[in-house]
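Side project, low priority. Logging it here so it doesn't get lost.
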Amino acid sequence: MNKRYRFFYHFNKHTKRLTVHFKGQCIPAEGIICEPQTESKWNKTQPFLVMQGFAKEVKVEKGVAFIR
């Protein structure tokens, strides 16, 4: 399966963690290791700045989200 899906991540002020949004899920993480290229996106409402790109999968291991 080589299909890539849009993802984005940002800092969540309420939980004081990073969150990765991928395939309709909001995944909390302590850190992120991101292999695909990303670009910044500014929004008019919160979260004002997100990093977005395309990925095949997101896995969480020991609190770290690996985006591939």
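Brief comment: The chain has a mean pLDDT of 96.
Revisit when time allows.
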